[in-house]
Automatic annotation (TrEMBL):
Residues 712-748 are annotated as: Disordered. InterPro entries: CSD2, NA-bd_OB-fold, RNase_II/R, RNase_II/R_CS, RNase_II/RNase_R, RNase_R, RNR_Ribonuclease, S1_domain. This is Ribonuclease R. 3'-5' exoribonuclease that releases 5'-nucleoside monophosphates and is involved in maturation of structured RNAs.
C-alpha cells in the first residue's frame, strides 16, 4: 500500500495524470484498496495538503498544469526564468519556472519580457526553480509600455505619474512629448534607466484627457492589454464577407422566433419560440426552440477573423463602451438576428414533459427570420396586461406560449435545485457626457429568467449531443467548493448556529437550505456573500467535471458565439459532428483544445478584472469632489490589514486601514470574517452596515479610503470565547495562536 508521502510525491511529479483512477492504476490498487485510497485522499484534502482541480488532484498552492507565464530573466546557465502572470496566493512570492527548450519550435525564440502559454511540470532538481515549463504558444505582450498621466512640476520638469501606484514616476524630455499636454493619459516607453534617479521615457501614444471619464475605461484596456483595435486584415475579411445562403440549411423563416434582449442591446444572437406538445404521450409538455446566430458561417478556422477572436477570447463590457470580440460588420450586421431579416442560425428543438424534464432534442442548421425584436420590460409588460403595438399582435400566438413553457421548465429547475444566491447586480448609468449619473439595481423580471433558463437548456443539449457523438469540445465547468473552503464556511456558519453537513459531496441544495434559513434576517446579505466566497471559479476545459452551481453533469457554452469564443468552438464541433456542411471543427483545433480553453479562461478573468477596475475608477472620479462626506455602506471584505466597505449608493469598495479603527488591539478572525477589539470584544464583521467618512479618492488608481464613523458592535459569544482562549494560551502577551495581532494607533 502506498504511504501518504508516496501519494503526495506522485501527485507532485505527475500533474498531468493525477486523477483518482491514475493514482489507483499507478499503485495497482483494486477492490477495497480503492476505498482506502479514497479515504486517504479525503484526509489529505481535509488537511489542506491537496486540492481538486477539474479531474486532477494537485498539491495545495501548486501551479496549474497549464498557465500563462511572464518571462522575467535568465538563470546562471542562460535558461529563461518565468513567473505566473496571475498569482492569487497573497503574501507569498510567485514561484519561479524554468523554461525548457520546445521541440520542433518555429518562429522567433521567446525572450525576456515575453508572455507565453505553457505546460507546467515540477522540477526534478532539488535546487533552483520549483517548476519547469514547455511553451505551447507565445502571446502578445507589451512588457515595456507604461500608462500614466503627464504632469509638469513647479520647476518645469515633465513627469509621468503611472496608473500603477507601485511604479515609480518617469521623466519625459521635452523633445519626447509627441504633442502630449499636461493632464493627458499617455502610453510611454522607457528609453533610459540608470542605477540612480528616475528613469526617462518617451510618449508613444496619447490615450485621452484624464479629466474625461471616458478615458478611465481606456486605462483598464491598456493596463490589462485588451486588444481594442482590429488589424486591417481582420476588418478587410469582415467587409468582404457575403451573406449566408440556403446551402446546407433548413428553411425556418416562417417560424415566429423572437429576440428578447436589454433595451440598449446592439446585437442579437439568440431567438426563442415555444408551443404545446401535441404528442398524446406527452400531456402538458412543451416544445422549446432556441436559435443562435451562425457565427461559424463567417468566422472560419485559421482565418484572420478567427485568430483575432481567439486573441480577444470574449467581448469586454464597460459602462461607456464595448470592446467586441468580432468587428461590427459581423457582430452587429451579418450575424445579428435582426427583425424581419433573413439570418443563418444553429437551432435546437427541445421537448419537455409537464414536470420540466427534457425528453429529447435535435439540432438544425437553418435560415430564420426574427418576427419581432423585444426588450425585457416590453415583453414582461405584455404578459402583465399592458401590451403595446408590437407585442399586442403576437401576445397569444408567441408570448403566452413562451411563458407557459417557462412555467414548465421552472418545475424542472426547482427539482434540479441549482445554487440560488441573492446578489443583486448594480448597473452604472452615465450622462451623455460620460459622467456617472446614478447606480441602479435593474428589476429581475420573469422575462430575464425565461431567457436564462432557455439558454441553460440549450447549452446542456449541446454538451449532451457532442458527448454522445464522442466529439471533443470545450465544457463550461464549475467545481464543487474545495474541502478547505467548505471547512472555513462550516466554522463561520457555526457562529450563527447553522450547521453544514460534513463530507466532500455537498450539493447546491444544501447551500440553498442555508440561504432560505437566513432569508429576511439581518444575516441574509452576510451569508450570501460568504457562501459566494466559498465557491470555486468557473472555467473552460476539454475535461468534463460538470457544473456545480447549476447542478448539471454536463454543460457547454453554445448560446453567445458573437461575444464568446468558447461558444464558437462548440458551434464548430456541432457542425462537424452532425454533418452540417462547411465551418466545422478542424483536427488542428481538436488537438489544441486544452490550449484554447486555458487562453479563453484567462481572457475571461482579464475582462472581469478590467470591468471591475473601470467601475472603481468611475466611482472614485465621481466622488473626488466629496471628500469628508459621510456615506452608508456594508463591510464587503475583512483582512488582517483592515476593512473593505462597499457604498450602498454606488457599490464601489473603499478601504479602512486597521490602524484607524480605535485605541486597542484588533484581532483578525479569519473564520468569522471579523476584526474584534482585544479588550472590549467589540468589532466589525463582514456584512455589517456602517457609516463611513470619505478621506481620499484617487480616480487614476480607482481607490477610495474611508474612516470609520460607526462604533464597533459586540461580537457573538462563540467569537468572544475564541478570543479569550487565544489570550489565555499566550498568557496575555505576544501573538495569539492562529490569529494575527497588531498594535493599532488611535484615530488621528
Amino acid at each position: 500500500m502506498p504511504t501518504r508521502d508516496d501519494i503526495l510525491t506522485f501527485i507532485n511529479e505527475n500533474p498531468d495524470r493525477a486523477g483518482k483512477r491514475d493514482i489507483a492504476k499507478a499503485f495497482n490498487l483494486k477492490g477495497d484498496n480503492r476505498i482506502f485510497l479514497k479515504d486517504m485522499l479525503r484526509d489529505l484534502a481535509d488537511e489542506g495538503l491537496i486540492e481538486k482541480r477539474a479531474k486532477r488532484l494537485a498539491r495545495k498552492g501548486a501551479l496549474p498544469h497549464v498557465a500563462v507565464l511572464d518571462i522575467t530573466g535568465r538563470e546562471a546557465g542562460g535558461g529563461l526564468i518565468a513567473r505566473p502572470a496571475e498569482w492569487e496566493a497573497t503574501g507569498e512570492k510567485a514561484p519561479e519556472v524554468l523554461i525548457r527548450p520546445s521541440r520542433g519550435a518555429t518562429g522567433p525564440a521567446p525572450g525576456i519580457g515575453d508572455r507565453v502559454l505553457a505546460k507546467i511540470f515540477p522540477s526534478p532538481e532539488k535546487t533552483g526553480p520549483a517548476y519547469t515549463a514547455r511553451i505551447m504558444k507565445r502571446l502578445e505582450h507589451r512588457s515595456d509600455a507604461v500608462l500614466g498621466v503627464l504632469r509638469r512640476t513647479s520647476d518645469g520638469e515633465w513627469r509621468i505619474e503611472p496608473v500603477e501606484r507601485r511604479q515609480a514616476e518617469l521623466v519625459v524630455d521635452s523633445g519626447q512629448l509627441n504633442e502630449a499636454k499636461p493632464g493627458d493619459l499617455v502610453e510611454v516607453e522607457i528609453t533610459r534607466a540608470g542605477r540612480h534617479g528616475l528613469a526617462h521615457a518617451s510618449v508613444r501614444q496619447i490615450v485621452g484627457s484624464i479629466d474625461s471619464e471616458k478615458a478611465l475605461s481606456m486605462i483598464a484596456i491598456h493596463a490589462h492589454e485588451i486588444p481594442h483595435i482590429f488589424p486591417e486584415e481582420v476588418l478587410r475579411e469582415a467587409e468582404e464577407a457575403k451573406p449566408a445562403t440556403m446551402a446546407h440549411r433548413e428553411d425556418w423563416r416562417s417560424l415566429p422566433l423572437v429576440t428578447i434582449d436589454p433595451a440598449d442591446a446592439k446585437d442579437y444572437d439568440d431567438a426563442v419560440f415555444a408551443e404545446p406538445d401535441s404528442d398524446p404521450s406527452n400531456p402538458g409538455g412543451h416544445i422549446v426552440t432556441v436559435a443562435i446566430a451562425d457565427v461559424a458561417a463567417y468566422v472560419l478556422p485559421g482565418s484572420a477573423l478567427d485568430r483575432e477572436a481567439l486573441k480577444r477570447g470574449n467581448s469586454v463590457y464597460f459602462p461607456d463602451r464595448v470592446v467586441p470580440m468580432l468587428p461590427e460588420r459581423i457582430s452587429n450586421d451579418l450575424c445579428s438576428l435582426k427583425e424581419l431579416v433573413d439570418r443563418p442560425a444553429l437551432a435546437v428543438r427541445m421537448i419537455f414533459t409537464a414536470e420540466g424534464r427534457k425528453r429529447s432534442h435535435s439540432f438544425h442548421r437553418v435560415m430564420m427570420r426574427s418576427a419581432a425584436r423585444l426588450a425585457y420590460p416590453q415583453a414582461q409588460a405584455a404578459i402583465d396586461g399592458a401590451p403595446d403595438d408590437k407585442t399586442g399582435p403576437i401576445l397569444d400566438a408567441v408570448l403566452k406560449p413562451l411563458w407557459d413553457a417557462y412555467a414548465t421548465l421552472r418545475r424542472g429547475r426547482n427539482e434540479r435545485e441549482p445554487l440560488e444566491l441573492d446578489l443583486p447586480e448594480k448597473k452604472i448609468l452615465l450622462t451623455p457626457e460620460g459622467k456617472v449619473d446614478k447606480v441602479v439595481i435593474p428589476p429581475r423580471l420573469d422575462a430575464h429568467k425565461l431567457i436564462e433558463e432557455f439558454m441553460i437548456q440549450a447549452n446542456v443539449a449541446a454538451a449532451e449531443t457532442l458527448e454522445r457523438k464522442r466529439q471533443s469540445l470545450i465544457f463550461r465547468t464549475h467545481d464543487a467548493p474545495s474541502m478547505a473552503k467548505q471547512e472555513s464556511l462550516r466554522e463561520f456558519l457555526r457562529t450563527l448556529d447553522i450547521s453544514l453537513a460534513k463530507g466532500a459531496q455537498l450539493k447546491p441544495g444544501q447551500f440553498n437550505q442555508i440561504l432560505k434559513r437566513v432569508e429576511g434576517s439581518d444575516h441574509q446579505d452576510l451569508v450570501n456573500q460568504v457562501v459566494l466566497r466559498s465557491q470555486s471559479q468557473a472555467a473552460y476545459s476539454p475535461d468534463n467535471i460538470g457544473h456545480f452551481g447549476l447542478n448539471l453533469s454536463r454543460y457547454a457554452h453554445f448560446t453567445s458565439p458573437i461575444r464568446r469564443y468558447a461558444d464558437l468552438i462548440v458551434h464548430r464541433a456541432l457542425i462537424g459532428a452532425l454533418g452540417f456542411g462547411p465551418g466545422g471543427i478542424t483536427p488542428d483545433e481538436e488537438a489544441r483544445l486544452e490550449e484554447i480553453a486555458a487562453l479563453i479562461s484567462a481572457t475571461e478573468r482579464r475582462a472581469m478584472v478590467a470591468e471591475r477596475d473601470t467601475v472603481d475608477r468611475l466611482i472614485a472620479h465621481h466622488l473626488a469632489t466629496q471628500i469628508d462626506s459621510e456615506f452608508q455602506g456594508r463591510i464587503s471584505g475583512v483582512t488582517k490589514s483592515g476593512l473593505f466597505v462597499a457604498l450602498a449608493t454606488y457599490g464601489a469598495d473603499g478601504f479602512i486601514p486597521i490602524s484607524t479603527l480605535g485605541n486597542e488591539y484588533y484581532l483578525y478572525d479569519e473564520a468569522n470574517h471579523a476584526l474584534a477589539g482585544e479588550r472590549s470584544g467589540k468589532g466589525y464583521r463582514l456584512g455589517d452596515i456602517v457609516d463611513v467618512k470619505l478621506i481620499e479618492a484617487l480616480p487614476i488608481a480607482g481607490s477610495l479610503r474611508f474612516e470609520m464613523v460607526s462604533e464597533p458592535r459586540p461580537m457573538p459569544a462563540s467569537m468572544r470565547s475564541h478570543h479569550k482562549s487565544s489570550r489565555a494560551m499566550r498568557g496575555g502577551r505576544g501573538k495569539p495562536s492562529g490569529i494575527p495581532r497588531a498594535k493599532r494607533r488611535g484615530r488621528s
